[in-house]
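Annotated sample (chain length 159).
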Amino acid sequence: MQKRRGISPVIATVIIVAVTIAVAIAVAFWMTGIVGLFTGFEQIQITTVYDANDGIHVLLRNTGTSTVAITEVYLNNFPLTTVLNRVAHFTCDDTELAENQPITINPGQDRQCLLTFDRQPDQFNVRPGTSLEIKLHSAGGKDYPKVIVIQSYSPGGRA
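Output written by the structure step:
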């Protein structure tokens, strides 16, 4: 009868260590992917706000790592899409903000937006010398405010 022998303890130890290292590397790559999904953040910078004859220009830049969806614009704490929807318009690169249509900004993307008024709002004045708080609200729940003192713009394009 032939004597059966298993693998030596040294080779068994090497195999177990190699399998453990391979599993550890696979888990590390998997966890890196999961962490990357949950650590994305949104960050909008309002780089410039100025008024001109055609409206109030707002230049935006997404400096975060995830896409930002602007769902509402507040003007002096009044929501544009519900309270001021027939008076004011907020348009970014030919996309107008609507109640069910947000404006999206991808990571690293710049958007040029224009705030216009068809007429003077009942809730506040838009005329030279007055201040206007513009606050962007995102789907992620963040607010990005900016205050401007109007120099020359008036509703309807009248200076």
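Annotation: The CA atoms of residues 71 and 102 lie 5 Å apart.
Annotation: DSSP finds one helix and ten strands in the chain.
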